Task: inverse folding
C-alpha cells in the first residue's frame, strides 16, 4: 500500500501494509490523502490500482478546542458556541470541557445578534442540561449581548468561569428564566450591565426568575440602570448564595441584590461596597420576599436609605442570623437596616449591627414590625436621631444595645448603654471563618460574653466556631473563646491539718467528673465518657454507637467510625486490646493491641488517646493539637495580703488545688488563672481560706512566791486541741512594784518583759519557767501580772489569758555600822550582803537597813569576826585575827586619811584575801609617821572572789563588819637635857631616878592624837615637854605638871580629865 499527501503527485510505500485491506484510525491530518495498492507477480511488478481519496468530515464534540467564537463544521475545531449547540441538541446531560491548551483563556463572543434564542448568534443560549467545566476560562460578551440566556428546560452548572462584558436590558451577565435551575460554582460574574431606563432594566449581573445556587463565587462590578446592580430576583425566583461575595455593584436601587416576590438564603457570604444611587438598598432590597441572612456580613454599602438592607413593604420578612451588618452609610434613614413599612418583619438572632451611619436610625430604623431581636448587639452606630435603634421593637432579651433612646421595647433582660468599645472591637477584621466579623473584646464584665442564651438550631457563630463556648454562649455574631471562669473557688473554713481542695473551671473545659484512664477490663457504656486530667478533652461513647473524642470547644477531633451501629459496650481488656462491642459482643472496632497485659488506655492533656504497654505507646490517635489550643491551661495563685497581690503557686496546674491546711494559710486567698490561644491569665474570683483557730489559755503552777526562797513557777499556755505546726503566744509581764531583777523567765535575762511560749507541733501545751529573784532591795509586796497576746496564726486567745503572781520581799540583808561619815545605809549604797553563805565570826544578823554608830558597834553580837593582838602604834603593825565560818575571800579597807572614804590610795589592804574556815591572821603595817588616833576599818567576806571589790554596794553572800582601830602614841624621851631621842612604848621607862624629872617630847602634829596614862606613880610634879592635842576620856592616876619645856602651864590632879 502507498499514500500520497500531495494530491497524487507522489506516492510512498506504507511500511508493513501488504494485506489486501488497509485499515487505520483516521486523524485530522489524514484529510485529502490518496491511497492505492501495487501488485506484483512473475509477469509484472508494481501495477497500481487507481487511487482513493480520504475526506474527513468534523464530528460534533463537547471538548472546546478553540477560543474563537465560530460555527464551522469543516475547520475540525470545536468552539464553545458549537459545543453548546451540540449539547443542546443531544439528549440527556452533557459536560463541556476545555482542551488543556486553551483552558484559562478568554472566549470573546463575536457573532452579532441580540435577544434571539437560536444560539448561533449573540448570547449563548442554554436549553438543556449542561455543565460547563471552564477551568478558569473567561466568557466575554464584549458588549454584543448578555453572556448566557438560560431558558426552555435547561439546567445549567457553571464551574470555574468568569462571565463578563454582557450587556442587555435585563440580566446583563446571565438571564435565568422561570423554572430554570442554575448552579454557579467558584466563578466570577463581573463587569456586566443592564441598560435602559425603564422598570425592566434589572439585574446587571444576573436576572433570576428561576432557581439560582451561587457557591463560592463573586458577583462584582456589575451595573443596572434601575434595579439590582448585582442580582435581581423576581417571582418565582429562589436564591441560595453560599460562601460568595456580592461586591462593588451599582444600581439606582438595590446596588447589590434586589428580591421581589422571591426568596433568598445567603450563607457565609459578604455583601459589600455596593451602591444605590437614587433609591433604597445599597446592599440588599427586599420587597414581598423572604431573606434569610445567615453567617454573613453586609458592609460598606451606601444608599439614600437602607444602606445595608432595605425592607420595602408589608409582607416582607428578613431573618438575620449569626450575621454582621457593619459600616454601611445611608443619607436618610437606616444605616444598617431600614424597615420602611412597619408591616415588614425583622428578626435578629445572634447578630451584630455596628458602625453604621444615617440621619435617622444609624443601626436599625423603623423597628422590627412583627419580628424580634434576641441575643444581638446593636451598638457603635451613629445618627442625628437615634444612633442605634429607632422605632418600636420586640425584644426577646439578651441584647446589648448602645443607645435605645429612639426606641421602645427593650427590657430588663437587655444591657443598655455600655460603650461599644467595651463590648467589641470596632474594626471589622478577619477573625477566622469565611467572612469578616467584629471580635468581642476580653473583659470579665463584658455584657456580651457568657450573657447569651442557647438558641435552638444555632450551633456555631458566624465564623463556624462552635456555639456556645461555655454554658450559655455569647451575644452577637461572634462567639468568643476566652477562658472565662465558669466555676470559681469557694470560701472555706477548716481546721489546721485538714485537706483543703479548691476547684476552678473555665469555658473550653468540660464540666463533670470522670476517669482519664481505662485498664484491666474496665469498660464504658453508652452515655459514659472519659475526661483528660485538665478537662480539656472528652472521649464519649455515644448512644448513636460512635466513640468520639471532643476538644473543649466541642470540636470532634477523632472518632472510631462506628456511627449508626447499635451501641453495646467498650472494653479495655487486660491483655491490652481495646474493643467496641455491639449486641452479642460483635466486634465493631478494635485497636488490635492484645499481647500487652496491663496496658492502659489514657486520654492525655494534649487531646491524644493512647494505649501504653510495657514497651511504650502501642496505640495513638494522633489527635494532639500541633500548636496553641483553645483548651485553657490553668495556673493557681495565692495572695497573702488580702488580695492586693497574687503569686503563682509553683507546679499547681490542675483544676483542683489540694493541700494540707496550716495556720500560716489563714486568710490567704486562692484563685486560678486560665490561658489559651486568645488570652492569658484570666482570673477566677478568689476563694478565701479561714483556719479555725484553737483557743489558748494561760495558767501558772502557783500564784505566789518569795524572794528569799526564789520560788520557781511554771507558766503554761494550753490549747484546747493539739496544734498543727509550732504555735506561739507572747507572754508579757507588768504589775505593781515589778522592777528589773525581780524574776527571770526560763533562761532569759532578768527582767525580760516579753517572751514567746511555744506549743510544739502536735502538742497542746507549752511552758516557760518564772523564777522569783532575790534582788536584795527592801521592797513592799509586789504583783507580777502575766498576760498572753499575739497568738500565732493557728491560735486564738481563750477566756483565761491573764494570771497574777504575788511576790513577797523577805530579803535577809547584813549591813555595816560605821560612823555617819561613811556609806552604810541603803540610801547611801552602803556595804551590804545577802544573808547567806560564810560569816565573820560565829554569828550574823540581818537588818532592814544599815545604822550608823560612832564606834562601829551598832550590830552588837555581829562584831566578833575580827580582833587585834597588842598595841597598835605608828611604825608598828596591826595583827588581825580573822575568823570565818567557811572558806572564802576577804576584802578590807582602812580609812587612814580619816576623810570618810575608803577610796584613797593604799586604803584597801586586803584584795580577795583567801581565808579558810576558822582563824586566819594578817599583819597590817602602820606607817611610822602616822598620827595616833582612831581609824575605821571595813572587812567584807564572800564565798567567791569579787571581780571589782568595792567598799560599798551589794554582794550576793557573806558578811560585812566595821571596826574602829586605835593607833597609840609613839614617845620620844629626852633625859636631863639629853639630846638623844629614845623611843618608848606605853610601859614605864626604866633607868632613871624614880623621883627625878623626866622630860617627854611629843613628836607629832597638833591635829594628831596623843594620851598618856601614868599608872603606879606617887603624887608629885612631873615636868613634861610636849606639844599635844587633847583626846577625850583619858585620865591619869596621879597628879602631874604639864610644861612647855621650861614654864609650867598647868597643874592637874590625879583624877582630872583633860580636854
Result:
Amino acid at each position: 500500500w502507498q499514500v500520497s499527501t500531495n494530491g497524487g503527485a507522489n506516492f510512498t510505500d506504507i511500511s508493513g501494509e501488504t494485506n489486501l485491506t488497509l485499515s487505520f484510525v483516521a486523524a485530522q491530518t489524514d484529510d485529502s490523502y490518496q491511497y492505492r495498492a501495487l501488485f506484483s507477480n512473475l509477469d509484472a511488478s508494481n501495477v497500481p490500482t487507481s487511487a482513493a481519496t480520504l475526506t474527513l468530515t468534523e464530528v460534533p464534540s463537547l471538548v472546546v478546542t478553540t477560543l474563537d467564537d465560530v460555527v464551522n463544521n469543516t475547520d475540525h475545531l470545536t468552539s464553545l458556541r458549537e459545543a453548546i449547540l451540540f449539547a443542546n441538541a443531544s439528549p440527556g446531560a452533557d459536560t463541556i470541557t476545555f482542551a488543556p491548551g486553551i483552558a484559562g483563556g478568554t472566549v470573546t463572543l463575536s457573532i452579532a445578534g441580540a435577544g434571539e434564542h437560536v444560539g448561533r448568534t449573540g448570547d449563548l443560549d442554554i436549553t438543556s442540561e449542561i455543565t460547563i467545566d471552564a477551568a478558569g476560562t473567561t466568557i466575554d460578551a464584549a458588549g454584543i449581548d448578555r453572556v448566557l440566556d438560560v431558558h426552555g428546560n435547561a439546567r445549567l452548572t457553571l464551574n470555574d468561569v468568569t462571565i463578563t462584558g454582557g450587556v442587555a436590558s435585563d440580566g446583563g451577565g446571565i438571564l435565568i428564566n422561570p423554572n430554570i435551575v442554575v448552579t454557579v460554582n467558584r466563578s466570577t460574574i463581573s463587569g456586566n450591565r443592564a441598560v435602559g431606563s425603564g422598570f425592566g432594566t434589572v439585574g446587571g449581573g444576573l436576572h433570576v426568575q428561576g432557581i439560582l445556587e451561587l457557591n463560592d463565587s463573586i458577583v462584582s462590578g456589575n451595573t443596572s440602570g434601575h434595579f439590582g446592580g448585582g442580582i435581581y430576583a423576581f417571582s418565582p425566583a429562589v436564591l441560595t448564595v453560599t460562601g460568595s461575595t456580592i461586591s462593588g455593584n451599582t444600581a439606582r436601587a438595590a446596588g447589590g441584590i434586589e428580591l421581589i416576590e422571591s426568596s433568598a438564603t445567603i450563607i457565609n457570604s459578604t455583601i459589600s461596597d455596593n451602591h444605590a444611587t437614587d433609591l433604597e438598598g445599597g446592599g440588599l432590597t427586599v420587597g414581598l420576599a423572604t431573606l434569610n441572612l445567615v453567617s454573613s456580613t453586609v458592609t460598606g454599602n451606601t444608599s439614600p436609605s437602607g444602606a445595608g438592607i432595605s425592607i420595602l413593604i408589608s409582607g416582607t420578612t428578613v431573618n438575620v442570623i449569626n450575621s454582621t451588618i457593619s459600616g454601611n452609610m445611608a443619607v436618610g434613614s437606616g444605616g444598617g437596616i431600614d424597615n420602611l413599612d412597619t408591616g415588614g418583619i425583622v428578626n435578629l438572632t445572634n447578630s451584630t449591627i455596628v458602625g453604621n451611619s444615617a440621619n435617622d436610625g444609624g443601626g436599625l430604623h423603623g423597628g422590627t414590625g412583627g419580628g424580634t431581636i434576641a441575643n444581638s448587639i446593636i451598638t457603635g452606630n451613629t445618627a442625628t436621631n437615634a444612633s442605634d435603634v429607632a422605632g418600636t421593637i420586640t425584644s426577646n432579651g439578651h441584647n446589648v444595645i448602645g443607645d435605645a433612646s429612639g426606641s421602645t421595647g427593650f427590657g430588663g433582660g437587655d444591657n443598655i448603654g455600655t460603650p461599644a468599645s467595651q463590648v467589641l472591637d470596632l474594626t471589622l477584621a478577619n477573625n477566622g471563618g469565611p467572612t469578616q466579623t467584629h471580635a468581642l473584646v476580653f473583659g470579665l464584665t463584658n455584657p456580651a460574653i457568657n450573657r447569651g442564651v442557647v438558641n435552638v438550631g444555632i450551633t456555631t457563630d458566624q465564623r463556624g466556631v462552635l456555639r456556645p463556648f461555655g454554658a450559655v454562649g455569647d451575644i452577637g455574631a461572634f462567639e468568643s473563646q476566652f477562658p472565662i471562669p465558669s466555676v470559681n473557688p469557694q470560701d472555706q473554713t477548716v481546721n489546721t491539718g485538714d485537706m483543703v481542695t479548691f476547684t476552678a473551671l473555665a469555658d473550653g473545659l468540660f464540666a463533670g467528673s470522670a476517669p482519664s484512664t481505662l485498664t484491666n477490663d474496665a469498660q464504658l457504656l453508652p452515655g459514659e465518657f472519659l475526661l483528660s486530667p485538665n478537662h480539656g478533652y472528652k472521649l464519649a461513647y455515644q448512644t448513636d454507637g460512635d466513640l468520639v473524642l471532643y476538644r473543649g470547644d466541642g470540636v470532634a477531633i477523632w472518632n472510631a467510625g462506628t456511627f449508626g451501629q447499635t451501641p453495646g459496650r467498650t472494653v479495655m481488656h487486660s491483655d491490652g486490646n481495646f474493643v467496641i462491642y455491639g449486641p452479642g459482643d460483635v466486634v465493631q472496632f478494635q485497636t488490635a493491641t492484645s499481647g500487652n497485659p496491663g496496658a492502659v488506655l489514657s486520654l492525655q492533656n494534649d487531646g491524644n488517646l493512647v494505649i501504653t504497654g510495657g514497651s511504650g505507646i502501642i496505640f495513638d490517635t494522633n489527635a494532639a493539637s500541633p500548636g496553641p489550643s483553645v483548651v485553657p491551661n490553668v495556673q493557681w495563685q495565692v495572695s497573702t495580703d488580702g488580695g492586693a497581690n497574687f503569686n503563682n503557686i509553683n507546679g499547681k496546674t490542675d483544676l483542683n488545688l489540694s493541700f494540707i491546711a496550716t495556720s500560716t494559710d489563714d486568710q490567704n486567698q486562692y484563685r486560678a488563672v486560665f490561658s489559651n490561644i486568645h488570652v492569658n491569665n484570666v482570673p477566677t474570683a478568689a476563694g478565701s481560706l479561714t483556719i479555725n483557730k484553737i483557743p489558748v489559755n494561760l495558767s501558772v503552777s502557783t500564784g505566789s512566791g518569795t524572794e528569799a526562797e526564789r520560788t520557781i513557777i511554771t507558766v503554761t499556755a494550753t490549747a484546747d486541741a493539739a496544734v498543727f505546726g509550732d504555735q506561739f503566744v507572747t507572754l508579757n509581764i507588768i504589775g505593781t512594784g515589778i522592777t528589773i531583777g525581780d524574776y527571770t523567765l526560763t533562761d532569759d535575762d532578768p527582767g525580760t518583759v516579753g517572751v514567746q511560749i511555744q506549743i510544739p507541733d502536735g502538742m497542746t501545751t507549752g511552758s516557760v519557767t518564772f523564777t522569783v529573784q532575790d534582788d536584795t532591795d527592801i521592797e513592799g509586796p509586789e504583783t507580777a501580772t502575766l498576760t498572753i497576746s499575739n497568738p500565732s496564726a493557728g491560735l486564738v486567745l481563750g477566756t483565761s489569758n491573764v494570771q497574777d503572781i504575788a511576790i513577797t520581799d523577805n530579803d535577809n540583808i547584813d549591813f555595816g555600822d560605821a560612823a555617819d561619815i561613811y556609806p552604810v545605809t541603803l540610801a547611801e549604797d552602803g556595804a551590804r550582803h545577802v544573808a547567806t553563805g560564810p560569816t565573820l565570826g560565829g554569828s550574823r544578823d540581818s537588818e532592814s537597813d544599815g545604822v550608823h554608830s560612832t564606834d562601829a558597834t551598832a550590830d552588837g553580837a555581829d562584831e566578833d569576826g575580827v580582833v587585834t593582838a597588842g598595841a597598835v602604834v605608828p611604825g608598828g603593825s596591826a595583827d588581825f585575827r580573822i575568823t570565818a565560818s567557811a572558806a572564802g575571800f576577804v576584802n578590807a579597807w582602812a580609812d587612814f586619811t580619816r576623810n570618810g572614804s575608803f577610796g584613797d590610795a593604799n586604803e584597801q589592804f586586803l584584795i580577795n584575801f583567801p581565808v579558810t574556815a576558822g582563824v586566819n591572821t594578817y599583819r597590817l603595817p602602820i606607817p611610822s609617821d602616822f598620827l595616833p588616833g582612831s581609824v575605821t576599818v571595813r572587812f567584807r567576806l564572800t564565798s567567791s572572789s569579787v571581780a571589782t571589790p568595792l567598799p560599798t554596794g551589794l554582794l550576793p553572800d557573806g558578811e560585812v563588819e566595821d571596826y574602829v582601830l586605835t593607833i597609840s602614841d609613839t614617845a620620844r624621851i629626852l633625859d636631863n637635857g639629853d639630846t638623844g631621842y629614845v623611843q618608848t612604848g606605853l610601859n614605864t621607862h626604866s633607868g632613871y631616878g624614880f623621883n627625878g624629872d623626866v622630860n617627854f617630847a611629843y613628836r607629832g602634829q597638833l591635829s594628831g592624837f596623843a594620851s598618856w596614862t601614868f599608872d603606879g606613880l606617887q603624887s608629885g610634879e612631873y615636868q613634861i615637854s610636849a606639844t599635844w592635842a587633847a583626846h577625850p576620856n583619858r585620865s591619869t592616876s596621879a597628879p602631874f605638871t604639864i610644861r612647855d619645856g621650861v614654864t609650867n602651864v598647868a597643874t592637874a590632879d590625879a583624877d582630872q580629865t583633860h580636854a
